[in-house]
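Whether sequence alone determines local backbone shape is best considered at the level of individual chains. In the encoding step, the backbone of a single protein was reduced to a row of integers, each denoting a local shape. For completeness, the protein is quoted in full, as a sequence line and a line of structure tokens.
***
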Amino acid sequence: MTTPPHTLTIDYFTDVLCIWAYGAQIRIDQLKREFGDQVQISYRFIPLFGATVRRIGEGWADRGGFEGFGKHTLEVAQQWDHVSVSPAIWHSCRPASSVMVHLFLKAIHLLQSQGQISAEPQTRLDHRTPFEAAVWRSRELFFGQALNICDNTIQQRIATELALPFREIKERMDNGEAYAALHLDHEAQRELQIPGSPTLVMNNGRQRLYGNLGYRVIKANVEELLRDPRSGEASWC
């Protein structure tokens, strides 16, 4: 008798303004393509760039401030050939906080979970749901075009491009639902002691994969947990 397949839930913690998460998206896409319904990605947002004046302006003061961090971001991106980064990043485009784009995306996710928008991939060739497409488009516009995705006008543009109902999105932001959902992400970050972005959490918090890890490392962990869901549990043996 064969063992019925089960679904592995992965909590994926990122900040949308994080260059490492931008570069790592290709690995999440590959996970979805390779494992399909066996893997469920639960997207969580953390405020790594919740106050950029402090994190970058003050934190990088001895390394050139925003200009120095922008140069660092471009240097990081040079190691990848699957993404593009504008030279204007963190120069002419300096979002004050990632919180606003996270609220925008949580509102879209709420609409998806409430059945107000589709949860199905947009096309057979694109494995992204409308919510996932909005996350990716937000990162593309920020890093690739140096647009302030925390601005309401840019968020409306993203919604229009993806045929998403901006009025309903804004309602979820204004009535506090998106704030409540984002608050739960921040609580989970503290409870699970998430060190930064990107971080994948599996096996009920027992396994954490943090940083710029190769796809084969992620895949090996996923395969082991799909093979034996009890992997990593305490044992007398």
